[in-house]
Amino acid sequence: MPDKSQKNQPDGQRDLKGFAIRHAAAQRLNAVLAGDAFEPFGPGDFVEGRDRALANRLVTLALRHHGQLDALFAERLQKGWPKRSGLFEAALRIGAAQLLFLPGQGDHSAVHLSVEIVKADKRARPFAKLANAVLRGIGRERPAVPETPEALLPPVLLKRWRKAYGVEVLNGIAQALVDGPALDLTLRQDDPDLIEALGAARVLGDTVRITHRDRAVSDLPGYEEGAFWVQDMAAALPARLLGAGPGDHAIDLCAAPGGKTAQLAKAGARVTALDLDEARLERLAGNLARLRCEAELATGDARSFGEDGAYSHVLLDAPCSATGTLRRHPEVIWHREAADFRERARLQAAMLDNAARITAPGGTLVYCTCSLEPEEGEDQAKAFLARHAGFRLKPVEADEMAGWTAPITQLGHVRTVPGMPVPTPDSLTGVSGTMDGFFIARFTRDL
């Protein structure tokens, strides 16, 4: 079965070893540079798992080190990136990323195959000699690549995060970007034998972490049986803090892909899972079927869905800038401007107002975002309380977090940031890494 990645390749390069992987990586990176989200390569792109892994690695390395590569190319391209040059920029970024951050793949392949990608693209072809000169120069000089926040992060976010979090946290965010994520799983039920088979370690609650793996998630033990789902440790906190259980009617607004819905169903609550996008709901339904979890699925707008006071527990994981997911989606930090945060904050406020309306008297409302921006977190929670006199903050307590107090703010919100160490139990070893950035606020409605 031929790789899909070879479908659109020029005949002269199809048999060139390693070309298919790098050509596909350059195409995918080119789309991201144009504003798309990065969609990892899957079995439909490459049959061999090692080929998929390398293609994904090349793109993510180029994205994690985007700021550092910008500086290198600014020194070497005196006239800037040529306009309408096809895959030229993406090919150079892939090649430089391999040279500097994946040296085990060989300098020759990094330069030669990147130049071949340029030659194979009619718009990039006139710049083949330039591509060769720039990449050979980088390979020969091995320029120093500082791993500082200033080198790794875009100026607009660098300034914002330094003001919001301080230098120490900013350094941790930058390091987390370079390190990338481990794989966190939420278990359907406690199973020590499965944890051992996965090579995982407990982190917090029913979250376990796999620091190193050599196979796809779908090939891990327990996947087909629905024994776990992929969910970052920080992303698993909001549903736990909602506190829904047997006898409660909970709604998960903006529910797809369904990790939080599965948590609520696992806790025994009757769950309604809402999403505006029917295709995303279909994906959610498939995920729940694998996990043997049940929920009522509904298509609708979180700004207007639901009857007054219909739900004892309401969870709103609102659409946001997603800057807290930079370890897994490094492209998001290069696609965001200050205006984006204001626009999303307006949408979040409208959803929060509706969430308040459908929360039953005495009920609980949890608002969360995977954003590091105060407008989408702390400021949003403060503004909500100012608009809704019938709600009050329900601070998160240390015992709800198994004694882990690091992310609990003075007001009782939860604020995690990339770079914050995971709360490793003292009896366990081998757990490392950090987590996504999340903001969580919990409110109760007066009777």
List the helices and strands and how they pair.
Layout: H1 19-33, H2 49-64, H3 66-76, H4 88-101, H5 107-120, H6 128-141, H7 149-152, H8 155-165, H9 167-179, E1 183-187, H10 192-198, E2 201-204, E3 207-210, E4 228-230, H11 237-242, E5 249-253, H12 259-266, E6 270-275, H13 278-291, E7 296-299, E8 311-317, H14 338-358, E9 359-369, H15 378-387, E10 391-393, E11 414-416, E12 438-445
Parallel strand pairs: 5-6, 5-8, 6-7, 8-9
Antiparallel strand pairs: 1-3, 1-4, 2-3, 9-12, 10-12, 11-12
What does this protein look like?
- The chain is of the alpha/beta class and 447 residues long.
- The protein folds into two domains: 4-141, Orthogonal Bundle (N-utilizing Substance Protein B Homolog, Chain A), CATH 1.10.940.10; 183-445, Rossmann fold (3-Layer(aba) Sandwich).
- It is 40% helix and 14% strand.
- The chain contains 15 helices and twelve strands.
- The protein has helices at residues 19-33, 49-64, 66-76, 88-101, 107-120, 128-141, 149-152, 155-165, 167-179, 192-198, 237-242, 259-266, 278-291, 338-358, 378-387; strands at residues 183-187, 201-204, 207-210, 228-230, 249-253, 270-275, 296-299, 311-317, 359-369, 391-393, 414-416, 438-445.
- Strands 5, 6, 7, 8, 9, 10, 11 and 12 form an eight-stranded mixed β-sheet that branches. Strands 2-3-1-4 form a four-stranded antiparallel β-sheet, with helices on one face.
- Helix 1 crosses helix 4 and helix 2 (49-64) packs across helix 4.
- The longest helix is centred in the last third of the chain and has 21 residues, at 338-358.
- It is globular, with a radius of gyration of 23 Å.
- It starts with 18 loop residues before the first helix and ends with a strand.
- The mean pLDDT is 93.
